[in-house]
């Protein structure tokens, strides 16, 4: 390429004297703005050397301005979830209850008794209050908390089976969000994975025949994010516990979503309930706090005191522990379960999953009229019956009747309408389906939130 283009690249100092760049850089620490400019200049030089066009040179100052503005603006912003996925992993999963956000404010605004026993006046255990609530709600003997459920599985297996075999059905070797796979977590825990059965059928004898001197745990994973149907067979927890007890082995179950209540009470498909799995004989149960439980991101380990105490003493517990903000929000969320009659109103996850159809229809019709007035001519906004999903690997294959808005425009594609709503002052996330832009009303508490501008 011609060296003329390279000679046209402005110097770092020249760019820093640009009016808008200079104004943006004025409030930044020394070296921050010049570093951004230097990197942009270096990238441009590499691009031109690779045959890039002169247009890239013309865009250099704009690129620097954009990077400086992005650096100074918050990257995490509120998003209105009208996608039809109630627990949207990419949007942070469960919305916290008002009680939990108040607890977060308290925990973040001053000192608190995180690891201090006010009764004895000495050091305390940071998980103690959450443990007390989990034990009360599940009838487990003991409990502790780590930063997510994958960490809960990791530390439980590392504590109870490091260097030894973990026996699990091939049909339960799940892959969770972000391409994290259970076999890899088992491997990282320092255990030896021993698969039994087949993808679609596993029998009690498969476990019995696999047990050897090196077997440390019989492991069961709830397939919360997929469903195998047809010619299938699964070993129940009750059967697995009987096999384990005959061989003097513990059963560890990864429940994933981990519901504390029977969701069928709210008109949903029943998911395994933590307390019922403890009662059925699981020695350790691990589950997430930010899915069906409706709290902050955390992994809860509940079960036999002897085993939980061993897990608590594992040095990994220090590395995986949660902070005061998580513990405060989790404690406040768990306390809501002590008043089951008020749970559906107090906990956003349960409220959104169980909203009645007549309420959703009324909200959809009100939102349709509001959007018609705001969007103007050319747009069609029609309320329709639809289906929501729970999301975050919860209740796979289960849909919930809902009301949606179908939005179309005579000369605009649904993808462009999707972009219009996402580019608003407060981004609104819908979805495109069957050549229509869809807004699901299930998670919308205020119709005004759907306005894109």
TrEMBL record:
One of its GO terms (cellular component) is cytoplasm. Keywords: Cytoplasm, Protein biosynthesis, Pyridoxal phosphate, Selenium, Transferase. GO terms for molecular function: L-seryl-tRNA(Sec) selenium transferase activity. Residues 6-45 form the L-seryl-tRNA selenium transferase N-terminal domain. GO terms for biological process: selenocysteine incorporation. InterPro entries: PyrdxlP-dep_Trfase (IPR015424), PyrdxlP-dep_Trfase_major (IPR015421), SelA-like (IPR018319), SelA_trans (IPR004534), SelA_trans_N_dom (IPR025862). Pfam families: Se-cys_synth_N, SelA. Its cofactor is pyridoxal 5'-phosphate. Its EC number is 2.9.1.1. PANTHER family: L-SERYL-TRNA(SEC) SELENIUM TRANSFERASE (PTHR32328:SF0). This is L-seryl-tRNA(Sec) selenium transferase. It comes from hydrothermal vent metagenome.
């Amino acid at each position: 390429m011609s060296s003329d283009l390279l000679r046209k690249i402005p110097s770092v100092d020249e760019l820093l004297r640009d009016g808008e760049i200079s104004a943006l850089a004025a409030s930044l620490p020394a070296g921050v703005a010049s570093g951004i400019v230097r990197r942009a200049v270096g990238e441009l030089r590499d691009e031109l050397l690779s045959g890039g066009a002169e247009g890239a040179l013309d865009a250099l100052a704009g690129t620097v301005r954009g990077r400086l503005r992005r650096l100074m603006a918050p990257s995490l912003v509120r998003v209105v979830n009208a996608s039809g996925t109630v627990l949207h992993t990419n949007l942070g999963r469960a919305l916290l209850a008002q009680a939990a956000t108040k607890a977060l404010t308290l925990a973040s605004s001053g000192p608190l008794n995180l690891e201090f026993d006010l009764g004895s006046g000495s050091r305390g255990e940071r998980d103690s209050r959450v443990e007390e609530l989990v034990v009360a709600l599940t009838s487990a003997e003991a409990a502790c908390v780590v930063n997510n459920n994958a960490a809960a599985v990791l530390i439980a297996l590392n504590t109870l089976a490091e260097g030894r075999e973990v026996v699990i059905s091939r049909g339960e070797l799940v892959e969770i969000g972000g391409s994290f796979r259970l076999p890899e977590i088992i491997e990282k825990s320092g255990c030896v994975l021993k698969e039994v059965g087949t993808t679609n059928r596993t029998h009690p004898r498969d476990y019995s025949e696999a047990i050897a001197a090196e077997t440390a745990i019989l492991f069961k994973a709830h397939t919360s994010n997929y469903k195998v149907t047809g010619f299938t067979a699964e070993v129940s927890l009750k059967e697995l516990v009987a096999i384990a007890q005959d061989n003097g082995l513990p059963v560890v179950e990864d429940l994933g979503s981990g519901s504390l209540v029977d969701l069928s009470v709210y008109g949903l498909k029943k998911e395994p309930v933590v307390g019922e799995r403890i009662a059925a004989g699981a020695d350790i149960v691990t589950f997430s706090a930010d899915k069906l439980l409706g709290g902050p991101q955390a992994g809860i380990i509940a079960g036999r005191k002897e085993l939980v105490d061993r897990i608590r003493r594992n040095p990994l517990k220090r590395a995986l522990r949660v902070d005061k903000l998580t513990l405060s929000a989790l404690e406040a969320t768990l306390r809501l379960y002590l008043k089951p009659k008020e749970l559906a109103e107090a906990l956003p996850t349960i409220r959104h999953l169980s909203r009645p159809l007549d309420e959703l229809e009324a909200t959809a019709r009100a939102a349709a009229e509001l959007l018609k007035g705001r969007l103007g001519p050319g747009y069609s906004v029609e309320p329709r019956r639809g289906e929501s999903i729970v999301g975050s690997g919860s209740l796979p294959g289960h849909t919930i009747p809902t009301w949606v808005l179908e939005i179309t425009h005579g000369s605009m594609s649904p993808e462009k309408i999707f972009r219009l709503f996402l580019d608003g002052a407060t981004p609104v996330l819908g979805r495109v389906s069957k050549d229509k832009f869809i807004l699901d009303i299930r998670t919308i508490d205020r119709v005004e939130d759907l306005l894109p501008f």
